[in-house]
Design brief:
Number of helices: 11
Mean pLDDT: 83
Order of helices and strands: HHEEHHHHHHHHH
Number of strands: 2
Strand content: under 5%
Radius of gyration: 18 Å
Shape: globular
Strand order of the largest sheet: 1-2
Structural class: mainly alpha
Low-confidence stretches: none
């Protein structure tokens, strides 16, 4: 386990030099919140500034976990980095675990900054337990998409990964109600997406209403699906990387 943690620390240091990664995880959610948060009145039963706070926190965590990881994994697989790691004493699953740990660690700043903006810029006032609950839900969402990034990165070549990742990215962003609240038919469709479920759970927490168990179960199911896809992708390419 120590070797896996050392690999994760090395990944985090290298990621600190990736400007595009932090553009999606930090800069873009912050800018969008500052520009848009005070433009509406309410959404999903809460003040618009509170809705947009959880939406942008979810946006930063999921986009960072998906876009950057999928492309890097595919490139490192093609360059033979994963094969080299398998020649070391590290456990066979060390690379994948390290990627998941890095995603979980590097999404923390994005979540914290957006929540702080919600409190001090958006004027969102919540009890301490609600802030913790929202952060935990958003963090779980990052784990879901980190698993999907592993699946995509192992399955596709570098020149194929970016369009695949962007298609998934825009689909879950729009149908998840990240950039704007959903209504009507679009909301009915979006209710099955993990991004919508994460945002809706968080707004229910903010609004002080009971969170439907179906929303929580939905996130768990998506995590299981993407983790299963990642496992299958890793096993399918075990002899070729």
């Amino acid at each position: 386990m120590q070797g896996t943690l050392m690999l994760a620390r090395a990944e985090i240091k290298r990621l600190g030099r990736n400007r595009r990664y932090f553009l999606f995880t930090l800069a873009l959610p912050v800018v969008l919140y500052l520009v848009v948060a005070k433009q509406g009145k309410s959404a999903y039963g809460v003040d618009f500034t509170a809705y947009y706070m959880v939406a942008m926190a979810t946006f930063g965590s999921f986009s960072g976990a998906l876009n950057g990881n999928a492309i890097r994994i595919s490139e490192e697989r093609k360059l033979g980095w994963i094969r080299q790691l398998r020649l070391t004493p590290l456990p066979a699953n060390a690379y994948v675990i390290a990627k998941l740990l890095v995603s979980m660690a590097t999404t923390i700043p994005s979540v914290v900054i957006v929540l702080l903006l919600g409190r001090f810029y958006g004027g969102v006032h919540l009890p301490a337990w609600q802030w913790i609950a929202i952060a935990a839900v958003v963090w779980l969402g990052a784990m879901i998409f980190a698993a999907l990034a592993v699946a995509i990165g192992y399955r596709f070549q570098p020149d194929q990964v970016q369009p695949v990742a962007m298609l998934v990215y825009f689909t879950f962003t729009i149908l998840g109600g990240i950039w704007f609240p959903l209504g009507g038919l679009l909301q009915k469709i979006g209710e099955v997406t993990p991004t919508y479920q994460a945002v809706k759970i968080s707004t229910d927490v903010v609004g002080g209403v009971s969170v439907p168990i179906t929303l929580v179960a939905g996130l768990v199911i998506w995590l299981a699906i993407f983790a299963g896809m990642a496992t299958l992708a890793v096993r399918a390419t075990a002899e070729t990387v």
